[in-house]
Amino acid sequence: MINENTDPITFEVVRNGLDSLVDEMAITVMRTAYSGVVRDALDYSTAFCAADGQVIAQGLTIMLHLGSFPAAINSLLTKFEGRINVGDVFILNDPYTSGGMHLPDVYIIKPVFADKSLHGFVGVVAHQADMGGLVPGSNSTESVEIYQEGLRIPTLKLYDAGIPNEAIFDFIETNVRLPVQVRGDMRSQLAACDIGERAILDLITHYGAENLNGYYDALLDYSEQRARSEISALPDGVFEFEDFIDAENLEDGPVRIAVKLEIRGDEIFVDLDGSSPQVPAGINAPVPFTYAAVYGAIRLIMDPDIPNAAGYHRPIHISVPEGTVVNPVHPAPVAARGITGFRTMDAVLGALAQAIPDRVPADGEGGNTLISIGGQRTDGSQYALVDFFGGARGGGPTSDGAEGVSHPASNLANSPVEIMEVENPVVVDDYELIQDSGGAGKFRGAQSYVKQITNLGDAATLQLRSDKRKFPPYGLQGGSTGSPSLNILNPGADETLLPTLAQVRLERGGVIRHEMAGGGGWGDPLTRDPTAVLEDVLDGRVSINSAKTEYGVVISEPQNRLDQGATDLLRSTMLQQRESSNS
Fold first, then answer.
1. Span 535-541, mean pLDDT?
2. N or C: which end of the chain has fewer CB within 10 A?
3. How far is CA 28 from the centre of its chain?
4. CB 169 within 8 A of CB 175
5. Chain centroid offset of residue 345 CA
């Protein structure tokens, strides 16, 4: 499938060299970043793009980030046409002028030159701990226009021919709550770009710039060919699915994501017409982010060996109407747009599950919950805890859902409790899995878990971005839904149930408890291996009562042993009752 003029051995060496360099960039960020959201939660991505902006290689980081790199690079190619020089470095974050996704995600992009000719770009996008705006952490769900969300950075030169523009650094530091962390993370991004540039120059020295350009084209063509081969093996047809964001802070909620997916030969057509209009809340998703969600969902059903180059996008055609939550127009707020990207991917997977039911897992927790707590320490300094946590995947065609493994769109890590407590005036009181929270199925959904945090400092601002309460994670092929999420302020006698999207004051000693949604189940629970149910009971994942009522498995007490005879009889009775109710 590789062009006959392409040497296959060199092709593989170049391909793996590119993969290694973007991963080395990612490791550099992880080891040198200042803020917990970048260093510990790993909320950043790295890429190498060709001179025209097409993604050639991307690091093993966040799928939803990579869709904006071509738009971001196109903005600098357009704005600085004829003025891109050796030693330049560009910075941007604005969704409406520069191809950004939301204001905390700041792109730093460095052009790579070979013999004074532009060869490509290395870039890092990282979620800054704060970019100003309504709430510490800059992830407000209550903003009604983007002007409330923080500092917008149009495409600018951060370095001009190797000379830093200190005015930009000073302007950013003055407008954010955490200048040390933000500047430190940006320097981490710069270091990673230098690492990437050096690796590309080594490849150029070894293979020559023109020869490498040929291999970039070969990678794009190869990834396209592989993708078309995968798609052509799928059944033709039109498949529709809709999913919802609870959006309890909106009068017009919930928010609908509608997907019509057509498989035709070796191409896929995805239409999001029918999705909700853009809303006066920060959950609108800029269109590059939506494209990334669609590409990412389809990529999940393909062979993982296909190169992560933009060629696999070519057989995927996407239509997204303007003025919707998946393609907002200025000045719609977008600070918490991640939730809409998650739901778009879930909806596309729901449509694909109709075409290939034996390859798509049930729904998970709906993407990472975001809890941000920010305010002022007793010494007057500002802090902003930005905690993403997730990881309750749905059961799949061959295995149970995984706990603690992030939604495939994000690939974030859960922040260590000890680091959170050292760097912020908080204490984590509770952090554990919840029994009976995973949807029942032949393959069980992952358990959800709870995180409870107490504010030890002065009154602070609490921002919550969660979902999947009114619309809990769906099961597939007969599996049950997972448990819904909960947000409880000050649990106990005077507790308050908060909506899924909320912005409130958290007093000194105030407590926020979040119970994440559980993963949906896959397949008929009455076909689950009884010994697997027994293991779940012994592990504390499933209660004895749920083993009986959900799975038809009888566990004798107090011995905790499987009663096979009673199980066979109960399952037979439950199947008969099901058939009677369906007739």
1. 97
2. C
3. 21
4. no
5. 9
pTM, to two decimals: 0.95
Contact assessment for residue 433 and residue 448, using Cβ atoms and an 8 Å cutoff: yes
Q: Which position has the token pair 């290939």?
A: 356
Q: Which two tokens stand for residue 565?
A: 């005879």
> Of how many residues is the chain composed?
583
Cβ neighbours of residue 125 under 8 Å, at least 6 residues apart?
44, 45, 65, 68, 69, 72, 101, 105, 106, 107, 108
d(CA 63, CA 523): 28
| Tens-place pLDDT, residues 377-391 | 988 899 999 999 889
Q: Which residue has the tokens 């903005």?
A: 75
CA distances to 65, 290, 292, 298, 477 from 259, rounded to whole Å, are: 21, 12, 15, 13, 20
Query: How many CB atoms sit inside 10 A of residue 118's CB?
Result: 16
CA distance 346 to 351: 9
pLDDT band at 1; cut points 50, 70, 90: low
The string over 385-395, giving b where at least 16 C-beta atoms fall within 10 Å of a residue's C-beta and e elsewhere, is: bbbbbbbbbbb
Identity of the residue numbered 317: H
Find the distance separating the first CA and the last CA of the chain, reported in whole Å: 52
Closest by CA to 268, choosing from 222, 243, 307, 234, is 234
d(CA 233, CA 214): 29
CA distance 412 to 436: 25
Among 258, 348, 370, 333, which residue's Cα sits nearest to residue 301? 348
Domain residue spans in the chain?
8-224, 362-528, 529-582
Strands 44-50 and 55-58: antiparallel
Query: Residue written as tokens 């694909």?
Result: 352
Q: Which helix (H) or strand (E) holds 573?
A: helix 564-582
| C-alpha count within 13 angstroms, C-beta hemisphere, residue 570 | 19
In angstroms, what CA-CA distances link 423 with 377, 418, 426, 465? 11, 9, 9, 22
Pair 226, 306: CB distance under 8 Å: yes
Give the tokens for residue 336.
Answer: 């918490």
Q: In 34-120, which residue ranges form alpha helices assigned H by DSSP?
A: 36-39, 69-79
Contact 349, 360 (CB under 8 A): yes
- Residue 583: pLDDT band with limits 50, 70, 90: confident
> From residue 58, how far is each of 11, 24, 48, 269, 313 by CA, in Å?
17, 11, 6, 24, 14
Phi-psi region of 249 (alpha: psi -120 to 50; beta: other; left: phi over 0): alpha
Q: How far is CA 338 from the centre of its chain?
A: 7
How big is the chain by its Cα radius of gyration, in Å? 25
